[in-house]
C-alpha cells in the first residue's frame, strides 16, 4: 500500500497532514530529524482517537495523566526544540467531545482518529535546547 | 455608507479584521477568490453573535449541530483549500460565554458580534485540494 | 543575578520565552517599544500563576472580571497594535486547571507561573491603530 505523503514545504517551514492511527509526537519528531529542524513553533487541529493530558504535580515531580477518546482537537499550540541531542516537543491543546465540552492542558500523547490532523510548523533558524531550570524543577527553553 | 476594508497584506499572507454582522466563512471564501489563495493556514479570535459547532456522526454521515450566541471566540484554527473548484474551509474553534465556560470543536458557521474578529492568514503557495477518503468516509486534505 | 534573555528574532518576527513571575502584557509592550513593532499577530502557551479573564458588559461599559490561579495556558491568540501612541494588546485565551477543565475568553492580565510561557510573534510591517467604533462602543483595529 502506498504511504501518503505527510508534509510539504511552506515559505516558513512545513505543513503536515497526519492520518488515522498516526502518533502525532512521533510524526513531529520524524520531521525534526529528517529535515534537521533547529526549532519551530506550530499550531494544529483535527480529530483524535485519543489524547492524554497531564497536569504537573510538583510535589511528586510527575504528571497526573488523563486519557480521553474520540475528540475534536480544537487547537494544539506548541514548539519543537532539542534536549540532549533528541527532539523535545512541548505542546498544549484544547479538545472537545461530542457535546462540545472541552478539556485542555499539557499534552502527553495523541493519536489521530477517523479523519485527519493538520499542523502548520513555522521554523526558527536558531537551534534551541530545553534544559532543567533547577530553581523551578521544570524544563525551560533556553534562548 | 463607506465599506470598511476587511484585510491587508502581510509578508506571509493577509491580516483580516471582520466586523459586526460579517459571515466569517463567506469573508474567507471571498478572500480566497479575490486573491487566488492556493492554500493557507489561519488563526483568529474575536467576538461572535453566534457560532454553530458540529460533531460528525459517522453512522448518519452528518454533523450534529449546536448553535450558541454571544461568545468570545478564544481561538479559531483552520486551513483554506479547494474542493471541486470551490473554496473549502476547515476550521475548529473554542468559544467562551459570559461565565468563561468554553465550548469547542468543528465550526459549521459563525457570525461576528458586537466587536470584531481578527484573522491572520498564512498562505501556502501550493494549491491544495480536499477529497473524500473512502476508507474513513471523511474529507482529507491531499498533499 | 543575570537576567535571562526574553526573546530572539525569527524570520517573521520574534520568539519569546517568559519566566516565572513575568507580567505577560508588560513583556509584550516592552517588546513593541524596544523593537518598534508596527503591528503583529501572536500565539502562545505555557503555565500561569494567575489569569484574569473579562467579559464585556455593554450596559455598564466595563469588563466583568474573574481571576483564576495555577493554570496551564492551552492557547493564547492575540494581536499587537497601537492606540494614542501607546501599545494596545488584544488577547484571548483558553486555560485549564488540574482537572483539565477549561476557562476561556478575553484576557485582562496574566502572570507566568512555575514554568514558562512561550510566544511566537509574527510582525506585520504596517502600523495599525485601535480606535473606538462609536456604533458599537468597542475598540476595533483600523485597517
Describe this protein's structure.
The structure is a homotrimer of 143-residue chains. Chain A is mainly beta. Chain A has a single domain, classed as 2-Layer Sandwich (60s Ribosomal Protein L30, Chain: A). Helices cover 8% and strands 67% of the residues of chain A. Chain A is built from one helix and eight strands. Chain A has one helix at 24-35, and strands spanning 7-10, 13-19, 39-57, 62-83, 86-96, 102-124, 129-133, 138-142. In chain A, the strands form two sheets. In chain A, strands 1, 2, 3, 4, 5 and 6 form a six-stranded antiparallel β-sheet that branches. Chain A has a two-stranded antiparallel sheet with strand order 7-8. The radius of gyration of chain A is 15 Å and the shape is flat. The model of chain A has no long low-confidence stretch (mean pLDDT 96). The B-C interface holds B 4-8, 10-12, 15, 17, 19-20, 43-47, 72-75, 94-102, 114-116, 118, 120 and C 12, 39, 41, 43, 53, 55-56, 58, 64, 66, 75, 77-79, 90-94, 102-106, 122-126, 135-138, 140-143. Chains A, B, C: It comes from Labrys neptuniae. Chains A, B, C: This is DNA-binding protein. Chains A, B, C: One of its GO terms (molecular function) is DNA binding. Chains A, B, C: Residues 8-143 form the PPC domain. Chains A, B, C: Keywords: DNA-binding.
Amino acid at each position: 500500500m502506498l504511504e501518503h505523503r505527510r508534509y510539504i514545504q511552506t515559505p516558513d517551514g512545513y505543513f503536515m497532514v497526519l492520518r488515522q492511527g498516526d502518533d502525532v509526537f512521533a510524526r513531529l519528531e520524524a520531521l525534526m530529524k529528517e529535515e534537521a529542524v533547529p526549532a519551530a513553533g506550530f499550531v494544529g487541529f483535527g480529530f483524535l482517537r485519543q489524547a492524554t493530558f497531564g497536569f504537573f504535580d510538583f510535589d511528586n515531580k510527575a504528571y497526573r495523566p488523563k486519557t480521553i477518546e474520540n475528540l475534536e482537537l480544537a487547537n494544539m499550540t506548541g514548539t519543537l526544540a532539542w534536549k540532549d541531542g533528541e527532539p523535545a516537543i512541548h505542546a498544549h491543546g484544547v479538545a472537545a467531545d461530542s457535546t462540545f465540552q472541552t478539556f485542555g492542558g499539557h499534552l502527553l500523547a495523541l493519536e489521530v482518529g477517523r479523519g485527519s490532523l493538520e499542523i502548520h510548523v513555522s521554523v526558527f533558524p536558531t537551534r534551541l535546547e530545553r534544559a532543567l531550570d533547577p530553581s523551578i524543577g521544570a524544563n525551560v527553553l533556553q534562548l
